[in-house]
């Protein structure tokens, strides 16, 4: 490469670049033909020349994926030299650059974890979620690198990301990444246990990581420390405050959010959303139709309650009076009351279950919120009708308990959904 082009790249002189192109319009193509070379984009990345790098990306996009003789791409060099503004430029130009493997199969995400560059790391995960599954030539995952370098803050972010990310491949990532073995046959948990990194073990326990023998963190510590299971579980429990966000557009907030402990409502919401994403469109439509028919059929109870509560009430009175005059005993009335109450309780459970299924299967849109509100109102009216009509105290208590469980479950789901939607909105806004 000509000295004039090298100097222009290092100082970021765009005018000098075009002067050289004017003199030799084939100058950049000849550079691109070489397999391993420090291109002008590599030199600009080392020097932090953002404007020159942006110009070069427009002229020669192929330079972004080319490795130099040391095995580094321009994005690797920008990250290693601490030019994070330039790193963001590369990410916005092509999110796939996060997965470009350099020396030893290390991607920019691996380097960010290794040197605990937290903000670029979070930016990489948001821009290219698939990068979390990349493995080095030594068989190391992102978790291996974080544990080996004892980068606990990076490990916290990775654990939080695996727990919360809603992606079509999320179930596969959660299954294989925590339990992946490197070239020496060690999982991330094996390494953490061998170095007695208690905080790392606590974090890995949250994603059910296992060692090479299939043992989880509690089993390993229980064997090594001779403590009972309750004491070990208490040792593994992580205590961190719940993070509140002042701005959804803040990368600092996202980092803190991912490092915070995942609450039960979030876990439940993520699990439901991942399962919904794994269901095909045809199966999803069929389930919604069936659930809708069940709701429509169950609501007929409002017009004709099973066993007719009013008839049961009259029957109970008549049987009681007959019992006084030597007729049938009160046991007959009690059996009839029990049967009607049980039948209505089963119908109520079916309605609550079907409406819950519809609410969970619908995609996250405004239409889902409207349908959820309508179904909640329908279930509430249905429950109030049965509570008023039911003449049996035991039946009233049972119906009220069922409705309370239904409401509580939906409140938990709503809270978890709000947390996950904040993460989803942030990711969508920064992609």
What do these coordinates show?
The chain is elongated and about 95 Å long. With 431 residues, the protein is mostly helical. It has helices at 3-11, 14-23, 27-32, 40-47, 50-59, 74-80, 84-93, 108-114, 118-127, 142-148, 152-164, 170-176, 188-194, 198-206, 217-225, 229-236, 251-259, 264-278, 281-298, 309-324, 330-361, 366-389, 393-429. The chain contains 23 helices and no strands.
Could you give a short description of this structure?
This protein has helices at residues 3-11, 14-23, 27-32, 40-47, 50-59, 74-80, 84-93, 108-114, 118-127, 142-148, 152-164, 170-176, 188-194, 198-206, 217-225, 229-236, 251-259, 264-278, 281-298, 309-324, 330-361, 366-389, 393-429.
Total count of domains: 3
> Would you tell me the structural class of the helices and strands?
mainly alpha
Strand content: under 5%
From the spread of the alpha carbons, the general shape counts as elongated
First-to-last CA distance? 35 Å
Q: Order of SSEs, N→C? A: HHHHHHHHHHHHHHHHHHHHHHH
The main pleated sheet reads as:
none
What's the helical proportion of residues?
55-70%
* Low-pLDDT residue spans: 241-250, 308-334
Total count of strands: 0
Overall average residue pLDDT = 76
Count of alpha/pi helices: 23
Measured on Cα atoms, how large is the radius of gyration? 31 Å
Protein name: Ankyrin repeat-containing protein BDA1-like isoform X1
Transmembrane segments: 283-303, 344-362, 369-388, 394-415
Keywords: Membrane, Transmembrane, Transmembrane helix
Pfam family, one: Ank_2
């Amino acid at each position: 490469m000509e000295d004039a082009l090298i100097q222009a790249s290092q100082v970021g002189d765009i005018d000098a670049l075009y002067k050289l192109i004017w003199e030799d319009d084939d100058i950049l193509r000849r550079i691109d033909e070489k397999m391993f070379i420090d291109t002008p984009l590599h030199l600009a990345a080392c020097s932090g020349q953002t404007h020159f790098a942006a110009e070069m990306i427009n002229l020669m996009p192929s330079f972004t994926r080319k490795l130099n003789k040391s095995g580094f791409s321009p994005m690797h060099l920008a990250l290693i030299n601490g030019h994070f503004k330039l790193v963001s430029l590369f990410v916005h130009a092509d999110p796939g650059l996060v997965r470009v493997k350099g020396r030893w199969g290390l991607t920019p995400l691996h380097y960010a974890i290794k040197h605990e560059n937290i903000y670029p790391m979070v930016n990489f995960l948001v821009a290219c979620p698939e990068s979390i599954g990349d493995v080095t030539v030594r068989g190391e995952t992102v978790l291996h690198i974080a544990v080996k370098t004892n980068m606990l803050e990076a490990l916290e972010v990775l654990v939080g990301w695996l727990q919360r990310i809603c992606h079509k491949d999320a179930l596969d990532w959660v299954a294989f990444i925590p339990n992946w073995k490197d070239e020496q046959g060690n999982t991330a948990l094996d390494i953490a246990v061998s170095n007695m990194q208690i905080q790392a073990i606590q974090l890995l326990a949250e994603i059910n990581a296992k060692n090479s023998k299939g043992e989880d963190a509690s089993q390993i510590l229980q064997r090594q420390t001779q403590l009972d299971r309750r004491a070990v579980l208490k040792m593994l429990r992580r205590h961190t405050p719940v993070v509140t966000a002042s701005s959804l557009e803040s990368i600092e907030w996202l980092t803190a959010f991912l490092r915070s402990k995942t609450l039960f409502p979030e876990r439940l919401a993520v699990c439901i959303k991942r399962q919904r994403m794994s269901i095909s469109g045809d199966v999803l439509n069929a389930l919604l139709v069936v659930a809708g028919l069940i709701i429509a059929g169950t609501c007929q109870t409002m017009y004709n309650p099973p066993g007719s509560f009013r008839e049961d009430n009259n029957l109970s009175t008549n049987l009681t009076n007959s019992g006084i005059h030597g007729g049938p005993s009160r046991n007959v009335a009690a059996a009839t009351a029990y049967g009607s109450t049980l039948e209505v309780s089963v119908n109520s459970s079916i309605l609550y279950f079907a409406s819950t299924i519809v609410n969970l299967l619908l995609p996250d849109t405004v239409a889902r919120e409207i349908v959820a509100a309508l179904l909640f109102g329908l279930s509430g009216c249905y429950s109030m009708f049965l509570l008023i009509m039911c003449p049996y105290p035991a039946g009233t208590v049972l119906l009220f308990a069922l409705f309370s469980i239904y409401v509580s479950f939906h409140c938990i789901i709503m809270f978890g959904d709000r947390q996950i939607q904040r993460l989803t909105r942030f990711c969508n806004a920064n992609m």
